[in-house]
């Protein structure tokens, strides 16, 4: 026991004297979680909460150009700047000059196009039902379509969101005109008030979060990033722990410890214990930051609605997996450069294929299969079950089984290497 306590004390002193290692273990994860969460939260707000800045040039000779502008304004998704004096060849340049994300140029025949299209559709419908005998107009000329330009810096998902919003508004306006044309063909002056009310109040979509139980957790940038980068930070201890093992072995410490009974085993267990404490402190620090600091600086709070016992036990298993991998790398590496280089690159690769940076569901099928070999993928999957899906123990069977297998393989490989080198 004295040997074990002395080894633990020695490991703590070594770690405290390694300022770069401490920075990698604690300062880097804090900055990663903070910066990436702020960036992603801002991106989510641009898409979901903020208004799109929109320059509009309305050259329409009819009334429906103004109707479109009114609908865009009422939707609450757009911040409009109207400059009807802008010429068409200056339209794109004017959009950038006014720092607008998007621009819409409404052509002079916009109302005529909508009216003609509505008349064609209403006459076709009435003709199909035998309500009229005349042949409907065969074609509608749209020689000047609605023109939309966007800032070239915008990502595709933001452009898609804007296009979807605009298409929905346009489709609603077209449907209104079609109904007006249809009732006009049937000698009504306007759409009956009751029908207009029924159309405007219909809603067939109700959104909710898929979950295991009734306790809903709203997905946000914090719920995704805090667990993800906590895992990344834990596995990055391969730099400190792996390098520490190589340094001691090359310095002859392992050989000297063989002269003292049980000293080598005590040294191994002391490293596991110290870095296990480090991993738990990383988890505690980053989770506490998400829980208490983020709301103060305007970021979503980290919500933990799952079983605390399940969260603690899974965190313990994730930490042990990170320690096992770091010790395995340190045991097989011949130099600190090899340990640091291979360890860092392998963790980055595991993170990339495991869904830390890019969600695995957007990857090709073969990459989703490759992701299953990444321990970071299974750690992240377990935390997502606990943080986002409100899952229980049965949902954690797959992540726990993989992490136990991964840790056992790493420990076995480490022991075989140490035995081959006659350290044990």
How would you describe this protein?
The protein has 424 residues and is mostly helical. The chain folds into two domains: 2-44 and 212-420, no CATH class; 51-201, abc type-2 transporter like fold, CATH 3.40.1710. The chain has helices at 2-17, 19-48, 64-75, 91-97, 110-128, 156-185, 193-201, 221-235, 238-250, 253-257, 263-296, 308-332, 336-354, 365-370, 375-387, 397-420; strands at residues 52-58, 78-82, 102-106, 147-150. Strand 1, helix 3 (64-75) and strand 2 (78-82) form a beta-alpha-beta unit. The mean pLDDT is 82.
Tell me the layout of helices and strands:
Layout: H1 2-17, H2 19-48, E1 52-58, H3 64-75, E2 78-82, H4 91-97, E3 102-106, H5 110-128, E4 147-150, H6 156-185, H7 193-201, H8 221-235, H9 238-250, H10 253-257, H11 263-296, H12 308-332, H13 336-354, H14 365-370, H15 375-387, H16 397-420
Parallel strand pairs: 1-2, 1-3
Antiparallel strand pairs: 3-4
Helix pairs in contact: 1-11, 2-8, 2-11, 3-6, 5-6, 8-11, 8-15, 9-12, 9-13, 11-12, 12-13, 12-15, 12-16, 13-15, 15-16
Report the average pLDDT across residues.
82
Shape: elongated
Strand content: under 5%
Backbone CA Rg: 32 Å
Number of helices: 16
Oligomer: single chain
**Tally of structural domains:** 2
| Poorly predicted ranges | none
Tell me the major beta sheet: 4 strands, mixed
Could you estimate the helical fraction of the residues in percent?
A: 55-70%
- Please count the beta strands (DSSP E, at least 2 residues each): 4
